[in-house]
Write a structure and sequence with these properties.
The complex is a heterodimer of chains A (about 325) and B (about 375).
Chain A lengths: L1 H27 L5 H4 L7 H11 L5 H11 L4 E3 L3 H6 L5 E3 L6 E2 L4 E2 H36 L4 H15 L2 H15 L15 H35 L2 H8 L4 H28 L4 H6 L5 H11 L2 H29 L7
Antiparallel strand pairs in A: 1-2, 3-4
Helix pairs in contact in A: 1-14, 6-7, 6-9, 6-14, 7-9, 8-9, 9-11, 10-11, 11-14, 13-14
Chain B lengths: L3 H4 L13 E12 L2 E13 L4 E5 L6 H9 L8 E8 L2 E2 L5 H7 L4 E4 L3 H4 L6 H12 L5 H14 L5 H4 L9 H13 L5 E5 L7 H18 L2 E6 L2 H7 L2 E6 L2 E7 H6 L4 H8 L45 H4 L5 E2 L5 E2 L5 H12 L2 H12 L2
Parallel strand pairs in B: 3-8, 3-9, 6-7, 7-8
Antiparallel strand pairs in B: 1-2, 1-4, 4-5, 9-10, 10-12, 11-12
Helix pairs in contact in B: 5-6, 5-8, 6-8, 8-9, 10-15
Classes of the chains: A mainly alpha (about 325), B alpha/beta (about 375).
């Protein structure tokens, strides 16, 4: 088990390094000149050249990549020019490790931008995750146990309807009616949890439910399907033949086996969501990673895009790793694999 | 070796021992969209302590459905059951769900066909045996239950049970898994053990070991055993009595010797003829029973076996297709459901069997010590 964890962790790091190369390659090798975008209408050949030098874009791509990777472990300076730094110490931006670069458009470090946005996305995704797991899995179990009954049909039908609506539609309707018109939910918005936990909770309540709705709909169907599949297993007949109570048969023997594949899907879904829930963030005006990505892509803010892609990839890779390790804990057959 | 009370239909005239399990006119019907599936239709037998009864038949003949009915494992909402299943005088069809649950695994236990799919893949063998023990012994501590599990594993011949108890089913071989399954079934000293095709998923050498183990354990614990199989070799080896089922009905029953030496029903003849044997020299091929098992929704009228029976001409008129034969005594404590005259049946079987008898004799004698 120990070696399994080590092996998987090494593989995860290797995977992330490959991702940096690919992202870096795709974005920095693109024909658009980031230096040209930094000065807009006021560009002169001189200012572009100066900006290029400032951003380190005058160096070969391999050197740029090496500098970028070096920045993950040691401090970088923008511009990286000792002579300039000596003459104008106040114009140099320090970027402490881990440094993901500097955005000339935002005139901020990429890490600063991510640090501002990450708590918003984390709060949104984790809260929604809890809601959709509780409702999705819970109602899925109910549907499976009442197979063919009214509850089952109602839940399956409702989840299909919910699943069919695009998130932005649900989000807009919810915002308009639940929050503005009828004022059932507090007005959505983000307050840091450290500042005011109650406001944090109230502000995110509607976004959580909106984001969770689509996922929950999918999980109801998923849980129901896995439950039904497990319920026909021979080992449940054995469990009943032993004289176990029906409650034990369902909640111990059936659920454990049925939930195993759901853990996999849930982990990957959460990992993907941590990169930002673009639509939900946009509709509810939450400044999360999703919004940041959209903005950065729109103005071609390369350092920010590369930084965000890396963060997103890291979440997905970590989620994958966690899921695999969890799977080994749940299902003894995949241990030491 | 056969006590008469075992095969008698009604217990009232059984002077001596009260039968431990008595099934009377058991019917298990499943209403479906396509019609009523009569999986078991009027099954009756009795079984004394320490005795073994073998239920034989093709797939879909109702063997497993009958055994699950005894265990109370059919959903009452889905299966319509009538008749009586008397376990020590208590009718299992009328008792409460809670009562039958407390009997399950305790008074009566079951061993299933495929131990890999019948054991939970996520729990250790020891965990599953402990669970089976503690549900019926709630006051017993985990440590004591664990010791009991190890003891049971040792009893069924699993080497180094101290280590094996913490392993998962997938870490066991097929035979060891079935031993563990038997250990789990016997952990509460059940008075009745139902083995549903216990050796079908195992290879031949392991089959023999498992059957031997079951015989040993029966001697030790004195349980009654119902063994369900399609393999006549298995019942010849372990059973005292045999019930041959076809289309949800018992077509022949009697002592193992009677059924093997003087089978009465053409279906039993077919089963015996389709059994592969090393000594069969007269023909190169096995003689399978022609046709397929009948649909339980739409059983052939009259004798359910009549469309596949090669001896219909022995019966006058069209009785085979119109009139359901009664399960009648046919001498030597054996009964069969067939219109052909008993004397004529003996003649017919003598004609078609030929070498069969020798083979059967081998089967029978090989099991005697």
């Amino acid at each position: 088990m120990f070696y399994y964890i080590i092996r998987r962790s090494v593989a995860a790091v290797a995977m992330l390094i490959v991702i940096t190369i690919v992202t870096f390659g795709i974005f920095y090798a693109s024909p658009t000149d980031p230096a040209r975008l930094t000065c807009g209408k006021n560009c002169t050949p001189q200012s572009i050249a100066a900006n290029r030098k400032f951003l380190g874009l005058d160096k070969p791509i391999t050197v740029q990549y090496a500098n970028f990777m070096k920045g993950l472990v040691v401090e970088r300076n923008f511009p990286d020019d000792p002579v300039f730094a000596k003459n104008n110490p106040d114009k140099v931006t320090h970027c402490p490790a881990p440094c993901l670069g500097y955005s000339p458009l935002e005139t901020q470090l990429v890490t600063t931008i991510i640090k501002q946005r990450l708590p918003v996305t984390l709060s949104l995704s984790l809260g929604a995750f809890v809601i959709w797991i509780v409702f999705g899995v819970g109602l899925g179990i109910v549907a499976a146990l009442r197979r063919g009954g009214i509850a089952d049909r109602g839940l399956v039908g409702a989840s299909l309807v919910l699943y069919s609506f695009p998130t932005f539609f649900i989000a807009l309707l919810a915002y308009n009616f639940l929050s503005t018109e009828w004022q059932i939910f507090p007005v959505p918005g983000y307050t840091p949890i450290t500042q005011d936990p109650v406001a944090w909770f109230q502000g995110l309540l509607l976004p959580w439910f909106t984001l969770a709705a689509v996922f929950a709909a999918g999980y109801i169907r998923l849980t129901r399907a896995y439950m039904l599949e497990t319920m026909s297993e021979d080992y449940l007949r054995t469990a009943r033949a032993k004289g176990l109570k029906e409650r034990t048969v369902i909640f111990k023997h059936t659920l454990r086996a049925a939930l195993t594949p759901i853990v996999t899907v849930a982990g990957l879904d959460l990992g993907g969501l941590l990169a930002g829930a673009v639509i939900t963030e946009t509709v509810f005006n939450l400044q999360g990673l999703g919004r940041a990505t959209v903005t950065a892509v729109a103005v071609f803010d390369l350092p920010v895009i590369v930084g965000l892609v890396l963060v997103a990839a890291t979440f997905v890779v970590i989620a994958n790793l966690v899921v695999d390790l969890l799977y080994g804990v749940i299902d003894p057959r995949v241990r030491l694999a | 070796m056969i006590s008469d009370s075992v095969i008698r239909d009604t217990p009232s005239d059984a002077g001596s021992s009260e039968p431990f399990l008595e099934v009377r006119d058991l019917q298990v019907h499943f209403p479906t969209d396509d019609g009523l599936v009569k999986a078991v239709d009027g099954l009756g037998f009795t079984l004394a302590r320490g005795q073994t009864i073998g239920i034989v038949g093709e797939s879909g003949s109702g063997k497993s459905v009958a055994s699950l009915a005894i265990m109370g494992l059919h959903r009452r909402s889905k299966a319509k059951m009538s008749g009586q299943i008397l376990l020590d005088g208590e009718d299992l069809l009328t008792v409460s769900d809670e009562r039958i649950r407390s009997l399950r695994g305790n008074q009566m236990a079951m061993v299933f066909q495929d131990p890999l799919s019948a054991l939970h893949p996520f729990y250790t063998i020891g965990n599953q045996i402990v669970e089976a023990y503690r549900i019926h012994h709630p006051d017993v501590s985990k440590d004591v239950a664990r010791k009991r599990a190890i003891e049971m594993l040792e009893r069924v011949g699993i080497p180094s049970p101290n280590r094996r108890v913490d392993q998962y089913p997938h870490e066991f071989s097929g035979g060891m898994r079935q031993r563990a399954m038997i250990a789990m079934a016997l952990v509460n000293d059940p008075k009745l053990l139902i083995a549903d095709e216990p050796t079908t998923a195992l290879d031949v050498t392991v089959q023999a070991q498992i059957l031997e183990l079951m015989k040993d354990l029966q001697k030790e614990f004195g349980s009654a055993i119902i063994i369900i199989t399609h393999d006549l070799g298995v019942v010849a080896d372990v059973a005292d009595d045999i019930i041959v089922m076809y289309g949800g009905r018992c077509v022949e029953k009697g002592s193992v010797d009677a059924v093997f030496y003087t089978p009465q029903h053409p279906y039993t003849w077919g089963l015996l003829a389709s059994m592969p044997r090393l000594d069969k020299v007269r023909t190169d091929r096995l003689d399978p029973i022609p046709g397929n098992p009948p649909s339980l929704i739409n059983l052939p009228s009259g004798c359910a076996f009549n469309p596949r029976c090669g001896h219909r001409s022995e019966v006058e008129g069209d009785r085979c297709a119109t009139e359901l034969p009664e399960l009648l005594e046919a001498g030597s404590g054996q009964s069969a459901r067939c219109h052909i005259d008993p004397a004529r049946r003996t003649e017919l079987y003598a004609q078609i069997s030929g070498l069969n008898e020798i083979a059967v004799q081998d089967q029978i004698t090989s099991r005697k010590p």
